[in-house]
């Protein structure tokens, strides 16, 4: 858990991921403790990071957002594996700034992203896949209304061991106009 305890509730907003978010993101993805929870491969060079960003901009099946808390870029979230035909997608989130962890920012960002997926994209179902040892992410998704659906046994190999992955999902039952 982070050390940051706000005096007042933080204003959390999602902004389109852009070039101005690259430096923070590069620093975060190169931290072993974050890679432990995201599964990211590191180290990532600046050149590889910029190449990834240029590919991301032209990929219609991925949408990335920077998470800002009171104007500070503190993490990233988004949609991957967008399936317009079945109106489904997989979500992800990470809070890169340690001082912003444990304050509810992840829950609020996940709620905002889910509402955007259902309302703006017209999706029917969104899923998240979380490593079983990532208690903070599991709690975040559950607080945002996701339900556990499956356990993928020994699905992820990390640090010489196999780990389970938990699949969580939230379905739009017409609240946002989706069928």
Task: Give an overview in words.
The protein is 28% helix and 35% strand. With 179 residues, it is of the alpha+beta class. Helix 4 (105-119) links the parallel strand 4 and strand 5. It is globular, with a radius of gyration of 16 Å. 28% of the residues are buried.
Low-confidence stretches: 1-5
Order of helices and strands: EHHHEEEHEHEE
Q: What structural class should be given to the helix and strand makeup?
A: alpha+beta
Q: Report the total helices.
A: 5
Please state the overall shape, judged from the principal axes of the Cα atoms: globular
Helical coverage, percent range: 25-40%
CATH topology: Aminopeptidase
Radius of gyration: 16 Å
CATH class: Alpha Beta
Beta-strand fraction estimate: 25-35%
Whole-Å distance between the termini? 38 Å
Q: For the report, how would you describe the main beta sheet?
A: 7 strands, mixed
- What number of domains? 1
Fourth CATH level, the homologous superfamily: Gcn5-related N-acetyltransferase (GNAT)
CATH architecture classification name: 3-Layer(aba) Sandwich
State the total count of DSSP E strands.
7
Strand order of the largest sheet: 1-2-3-4-5-7-6
What's the rounded overall pLDDT mean? 90
